[in-house]
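Sanity check

After download, print the first record. It should look like this:
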Amino acid sequence: MRDPYSVLGVSRSADEREIKSAFRKLAMKYHPDQNQNDPKAQEKFAQVNQAYEIIGDKEKRGKFDRGEIDEEGKDKFAGFGGGGGNPFGGGHPFGSAGAGGGFTGGAAEDILNEIFGNMGGGRSSGGGGNPFGAGMGGGARQQARPSKGQDAEAKLSVTLEDLVSGEKRRVHLPTGKSLDMKVPNGVKSGQTIRMKGQGFESRTGPSGDALVTVEILPHKLFKVEEQNVRLELPLALYEAVLGARIRIPTLEGKVEVKIPAGMSSGKSLRLKGRGLPDRNGNRGDLYVTSKIILPEGSDPGLRALMEDWQDTNAYRPRSADFD
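Expected C-alpha cells:
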C-alpha cells in the first residue's frame, strides 16, 4: 500500500475539504461500475478507498501522521497480536467488523453513498468479503450491487404565457436527450421538477433522474402578484374623462375592455380568471390599472381649458393629510 496522501494526490497539509474532494473525483473515476472490464481500475478503486479511510478520518489521520499506524491502518507497535490471523491487526481499513463477519462502512462509504446512491463502498453481503469486489484474503470477486445512474440537471426558461397555455416545452438534457415536458400548474421560478428515469444510464441499475429547474422570465407588460397579474394601462386624458373601449393584451391574446367615464389614474379593472393557475389549476385574476398620460409638450388649448376649469370647477384631489 502506497502512502495514502500520494494515492489521493494531496499534500500532507491538505485540509478535510481538499481530501474529500480528491477522494470523490478518484472514486467516480475508478468505480467498478464504470470499469467493469478493467481489473487495474478496480484495484485502484480499492486503494483509493483504503487511503481515504486512513486520512479521511481525523483520528486515524492523526495516528498515521504520528507514525502509530501504517498505510494499511495496522498498528505499528501491536504487530499481529490479538488479530486472529487478520493481517490488519484486528481492524480493517474499510471499517470495523460486524457481528456477522461483514464490514460496517466508514467515512468512505458515506461519500460513496452520496455519489452512487447507496451502492459503492457499502457493506458486503458475505462475511469477511471485500465490499468493493475482491476478497481481502484473495477470495473470489463479489458482484457489485446495482447502482442508480447519475441525475442530469437542466434549466427550462418559460414565459407567463407558457404557464397558462398548457403546451409542453422542449428540455435539452446533458445526456444528449431532449424531452417535451409539461410545466406543472403553480410552479414557481427556481423550483426544480424531477423526471424519474430520464437521467444518465447505469450499467447495473436504473437510470438516474432529470432535475429540471424552471426559470420564469420577466414580462415587459405584466407584473406577477402570486397567482394574479397586473397590467398598467396608459389612458389619454379624454379617454379617462369620457370613457372608452380599448383592446388590451392578456396572457391568452387581446380582449376589449370598457373604460368607464371618469376613470382616475391608479384605479383598476378586474378581469376574473385571466391570471396564472395555482397547483389545482384555478386561475388568478388580471388587474388592469389606469395611468393617465398627458400629451408631450405644451398644448395651448388644453392649458386654456384647464385654467377655465380651475376657475369654475376646482376640486380637492388630496385628503386633509396633505394639508
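If your output differs, re-run the checksum step. Summary of this record's structure: Confidence is low (pLDDT under 50) at residues 79-105, 118-143.
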